[in-house]
Amino acid sequence: MKSTTVMFEEDPILICLVVALLLASILIRNYSSRSDVQEDGTSPVPSSPKAQVSASKRNPGQWIPIDFKAPDPPPYPDWDVKLTKPLPYRPFKHGPTYFVNMGLRKGNFDDWIELDNEYLKFHAIKKERIETRGDKLCKTAPEALDAAIELLEILCDYLPTRYPSMFTRTSVGIDNTVTNERFNIVQRPLAEEPMKTIGRLIQDDIAIMVEGSDGQSYLKSGSIILPGFWKLEEKFDMNLSEIHTSGNVPQFREKLEKGMVNFFKRVMPDDMVIRHNYFMQVDDGLAWSHSIGPEDASNVGWFTAERDKVVENHWFRTERQTLRRLPRSGGVVFTIRTYFHPVVDVAKEPYVPGRLASAIRSWGDDVAKYKGSEKYKTVLLKFLDQENQRQIDSGLISEGGQSHLKYPY
Questions:
Q1: Rg (CA), the chain
Q2: What is the pLDDT of residues 53-107, one digit of tens each?
Q3: Structural domain contains residue 147
Q4: Which of 21, 9, 35, 16 is closest to 266 using CA atoms?
Q5: Strands of the sheet with 138-140, listed across from one edge
Q6: What is the dihedral of CA 177, 135, 334, 157, to 10 degrees?
Q7: Domain that holds residue 233
Q8: Do residues 281 and 289 make contact, with C-beta atoms less than 8 angstroms apart?
Q9: Residue 140 gets which letter from DSSP?
């Protein structure tokens, strides 16, 4: 009987077949190790083979730097600081059932940071709050300083390429040619806390999670200037689970905790995901919802809000959140871009009032309490129902019809 070596020497095709079978088995094993469908029916976010190898080799709290850089984004098409409108995210669905889930979708690095014609308003509010409350809103633990600086460096590469009419890359950092601000990111020490600089550059708030030796992800750096309902100083140094349980997030333990904790462990620099959520607010506080109590009060919540205010006081607040891991430091960056509009304006859009009313009615008791619906639902639902009927009567929409727009629009 011939040896294996002789068989391969005499039949090179056999070698090709064996190699092909080995490659196929590796691909099948990697593919089958991923879940097929998430709770909300969306496709799971894949992780690359490189990511899987790196995650399996490192110890909890230890990061092995990865040589990865996202491709340079193309310039945002026809972007103008005065003309480019905010994207109309409407991330709510018709009832009758409201599903509590992470709702992650694969993101595109090109679209990481979104700026629009509300930039100067956001910038003015952020500038004033950094100057008056900066140390409460922007801070970084020593173990996260490298991650914060790495994030600043990535933004200084990304922004001039994506928004060249506003930002210019310089030999020492970045210039904002609209606000006439110049930022030096190479001097040491830095002129200001890096998360304050990041807050001045973009409309998003940002948090950085760092993995500890126990394998848990901890909030160790943040630029949380426009939070609406929560305070960085209260959540700082908490792990991912503590952040959510301290905020009484509905069904976190039952439906979200395991998947979220595992995701933060496995997300890699070549992945980026996006999620959306939404809230109602009964005041116009973009930076802080003053109806739930003073920002410096020790105990705030919906219990202080006035009930059944006229609909002109109702505001629709939606957040676009992205998550990605920094390749050098291993910190996980969580961006929070807020879109904030009066309900009376949002309800003018076709199909929106009927869909929003249906979504609110689908909230379970725990979600309704978390979102404070008892303070506004009577007035709001009456208004939305009237607007929905008006759209039907005017022929703008068909009764029982569905918008052609897909989630989250």
A1: 24
A2: 455 577 999 999 999 999 999 999 999 999 999 999 999 999 998 988 888 999 9
A3: yes
A4: 35
A5: 105-106, 272-281, 315-325, 332-342, 205-211, 217-223, 138-140
A6: 30
A7: 34-278+322-341
A8: yes
A9: E
